Structure prediction request, 1427 residues.
Amino acid sequence: LPSSSHTSSFVGGVHLKKMAVMDFFRRRKSVDNEAQHDDLKRNVEVTAHKEDLETELLQRLGVNQYTGLGSDAAKTLLTDHGPNMLTPPKQTPAWVKFLKELTGFFSLLLWGGSILCFAGYLIDRSQDHLFLGIVLVLVVVVTGIFSFVQNSKSESLMNSFKNMLPPKVKVLRDGTTDEVVAMQIVPGDIVFVEAGDLIPADIRVLECSDNFQVDNAALTGESEPQKRRPVCSHDDPLETQNLCFFGTQVPEGSCKGVVIATGDKTVMGRIAALAMSTKNEQTPINKEIHHFILVISAIAMFLGVLFFLLNILIGTPYIENLVFMIGIIVANVPEGLLATVTVCLTLTAKRMHEKKVLVKNLEGVETLGSTTCICSDKTGTLTQNIMTVAQVVYGGINSFVTEDAPSSFTGGKKTYDSTNICFQKLMRCAALCNVATFNESSKWEYDEDGETKKVDHYGNHIPVPFKGFVTQGDGSTIESYNWKPVGNASECAMIKIVQGEASSDENDIAGIRSSHPTKFAIPFNSKNKYQVHVHENSKNGQHVVLMKGAPERVLERCTHAVIDGKVVALTQGERTNIEKQQESLSSNGLRCLGFAELDLDPKVYNNNYKYSADDDHKYSPNFPIGDKEDDSKDKNGREQNPISRKGLVFIGIMALIDPPRPAVLGAVEKCKTAGIKVIMVTGDHPITAQAIAYKVGILWSKTRGDMEKDNVKFGRELSDLEFENPDDAEAIVVPGHTISVDMEESDWDFILNHRQIVFARTSPQQKLVIVENCQRQGHIVAVTGDGVNDSPAIKKADIGIAMGIMGSEVSKNAADMILLDDNFASIVKGVEEGRLIFDNLKKSIAYTIQSNIPEITPFLAFIIFAIPLPLTTFLILAIDLGTDMIPAISMAYERPEADIMKRPPRNSKARLVSNRTIQFSYGQIGMIQALAGFFTYMIVLNDYGYPPNILVNRGHSEVWGHQPMFCKFKGGHYVNLDGDINENLNPAIDSPTREYPFWFEGLDGEVHDCGYAYNSFAGDGKPSDFDFRDSASYTGQTRGKHTGTIESYEALTQNHYFEYIPWRGRSSSFWDNRYLNWNTNDSNGPGNLGEDVEMLPYFGGRPAGLWSLCEQTSDQSCEDQFCGEKGSAEIRGAQVPKMAINADPTRFDFADCSSQGEMTNSLYDQAKFCNGQGSETLTESGCANVNKYDIDSKVAFPNNPFQTFYCMGFDFENRDSCGRLTDEKESLPFCDADGNVCGTFDSRDAECKYMCEGYCYWPGSEAINPSKLDQMSTFVQFRSETPGDGNKYQQCLNIASSESAYEALKHAQGAYFVSIVIGQIAGLLVCKTRWLSIKSQGMKNSFMLFGIGTEILLVCWLAYFKPINIALGTRDIKLIHWFPAIPFAIFIFCFDETRKALMRATSKERTDPITRQTIREKGWIERNFAY
Prediction:
């Protein structure tokens, strides 16, 4: 056996080999998938149409065409080849999709922020953290749900392919015909299809009727049904006439065929696989938003982590540091951005729908705006997909002439003379030699049930007008026929022109046909290429032969012609004239049909005459059709009937085309102006495609092919002056057979570098490759199409556009947008809307991120300068998700700037949020807004008694507003509640008293410096059964929280730092007299007091009593061992972030401890809590020096002003209030039973023993409640189960210093919030335009005005209405505090208007003479300051 080391090595080697093999297969699978995708892009390679039927194809398939497959063989083949269906794609579970929506990068960032908030809440139980975490979670979840509801394209795409499969098919098996489910068809099956059926698989035609046709529009885009017969007519399987393909329709005829491919192996299956394997391109706006989120998130995370580490270095408490990092992240990330973008896109999509464009993918709207190349299908997009008579040729005065029929191909003009006899004969022949009809139900108005015809007041059926006009999405109108024709597209076009020219019932279609009943007809066939009808003129009984067909076939059968209303001999010159006109029409892409007639001899040809096309002896008709003389016999020995040789009378030509839509020419011109290349990609014939391209402006100069032809035609040599060099051609028409997926990139570049391009006769695979090469060149490509053949290219495009009327379900599901009116002009409107939305999104984002700077800088100032935090995370969310939302969305309603469609398409590398956008929003507007915010913030704090010079290094979040502030004063006075000045006290050296607690600056007073008492004690552990009112429950523990002591308070006092309660705070709106004597049981007070107090923030704030280091032991020895030094942190008299040093004493000198020893500047872990309750008494020796309750002296309350005190207060409105304090007993008033003051503590009679309302009576004052309350006052321990009882003394505390600072900061934060909103209003106005002055653009955006109004109302609601302002931490801001930010807003507006004016003045514009596109040469200011 191998050793353990060898075994380990052996196993490890096997594992590595296994991993290597797995990695190889993973890479091989990826390579195989790519190779399979590339293979699908190749043109279809099918040989079944060229194989010999008996010796090759049927033998290979193992089938007899007369008996079909055997049942057993069919089952075996079904097992081998699988069901005849398209393989569905793998489905992603809905929960996985939803999870992906919730775990994007942006979402993960917000998830991280919310987790930090919840962690902070678990540590310090701060509700702010809890609420912030919940809000962030809601933002992520709501955004995720909104994104999730969008349907998956791949699912709907494959479902639409299923609709192309017929339910059952007629099949020949075992010699009998039966119907089987289409999914059970197998290769080799003999199938039968008839008119109206769907082809169930790819089949080769064995037998068919002479009129058998298939509609390949879904596959190739050809507008005309294609003839099919059992003959291989072309090497290309898509062109040959003996193949029919899965999913195509049979409009006419019947067929018997053999199945050559099923399911995924069919041509349609390859297209489906290609569409499914083609990856959706990430939209430009999606890329930009993703890039923006990455940049903003990187900035947020970098700043958050950076300052988190800096805070660790300088010793900021963990929770405070955590809150700060969350604030940095929240301030940098515009939480409302995704919602704003989504709403903007939705609003634009709604506006697009009004213009007949259905937006499926919201981001596609913007993609269309950034489009640089449109690959457009021809049929149904550029054209109307309605065959129309565009021109007619008939006999004029001297010869045949070509005249225009009214259509968009001819500019809507009509030049023919409808009264001309020759023209009327042409109309008659077109009406009679024609089997197309009008759908009878389309001629009448019907009730809502769709079955009952409407009638007028006289009981007559109400007819529908023959034609009308339909308004397109772009505002243009197009002629529409209300009567729906039924039949061949060419014949339908003819009856429409005839009906349109009808002046009475006699010469409309129904009238002409009723007066000319049909006597005989020879249908059109591909061999003869003509159709013949014999009709009787009911007016004179004469019969007439009418012929319609290929012009050359009809003309050769004519010996005469109708010119100037007369039948004349058809000369060779006139014949040549007609042929030239026909060639000219055909070269313009028109389909030409010739018409002829012959009035028959009524003596011979009457109602008794039996017409026939042939008989047993004659193979030609027994009436004249202009046959050439032929003495040969057919295979049945029949001869030609001499009667058929008589020549016909040529009456004219009708030239038909699917005409361009009227608005397309103007739309293509707009594309040129906008710098967008329009490429036609069609499956139609190159000549037809080129003709339409010239008509709509896609081509406007000579093509490369035409130059080559003309050089050959006129014998031009390279040296000739007249020689046209094809390499100089700007236009090119590229037939599909000349391109392939294997072409070199240089060949593709040669083609695509032409300015004017038409691709004709293209396959679905070629369309996809064309799109890919356009994208390779850096184009943002939009693709239009209506057929299944277009779906791979539509899906591959940056934006796919399908036709809503003529489009297949497959193309609609693959597309991002659907043109409900099939109008190319709607795309151009979409381009304008897309450019507008990019402009507006850029403006909206520039506006939105402006507030990032005034949101971030407060946190930076907080950590760098240690000032009180000017803005909270809640207020940031109120801006991002509240006040900014509607104004940001209002940008979606902004009108386009004047030059929007004259600009070139934006560079694909240009960023939605570029460096200059950041520079504009952050470096310019944002900085001004931040300055406005700080200015306002300092104004407000100064107005409430906190000047800017004391803010630096005083902003510790755990002390500002939670602990009393101590300041050193220069001048000023102490005043009482009524504003009376105490002239005996000098604020520079004397402490304030209980009766005179406020400092008033007067004329020359100044706050020199401020700070907080150092938190010199931290007791580990958590008190059990904690009651903040009971000193016994403290047990020397604070959960590790640092807290202040009486020694640190006295250290400040000895250095002339006195408790600061500004008189300005007293005169403010937030002041409450109860701050001076707050009932600690009142839950409406500060956050660290009340019934449900959390220990951690409580110990960090002002407790209901005092900790003492010296009173820890009963002997007051103050020896080092009892204090237990812990750590090396210095005890400082003023506490701010630890690195901020103040003028603190180097040693403490306490009267009670000086003889016992000196206390070092250290942090202690043992102290005693004293508040006169619990197991202690008011004069207990252990707390005597802290409590200093001296009931017998003239001092009414504890000499220590920081200690709690007890009193029974009498107040009709609030019996639990602590009442007003007096400094000496002798000044405490007493009242009689009626509440009237009758004396004082030292001077009163026996009846003067009652409490006066509004004062505080201490234990031992011997005062009782008024007799009418029938309550006796007795001093008991404060702990009471009924704290509201009137006969219990209340525990009271002076919280005025901390509460005044707290409320002042809340007002300042609210004012900072208001200043941002005011700055954002100015920012919104300057973002209305990027180039024009706001004067030119105007203030016509009513939604923006509404947004500004709602922004102001919302900020008022958030600031003034409870409980919202309490939850957000805002307050009732003084009106005057709205104004400091206004000058800054005005400056923002003037600054930006000046910037744009200088840009316009220094940037020059010129116009391209060919495209009329405006080209701007950017000046220095635009290059450096435009965003």
Summary: Confidence is low (pLDDT under 50) at residues 1-41, 150-162, 1113-1161, 1270-1287. The CA atoms of residues 1311 and 1375 lie 10 Å apart. The longest strand covers residues 648-657.
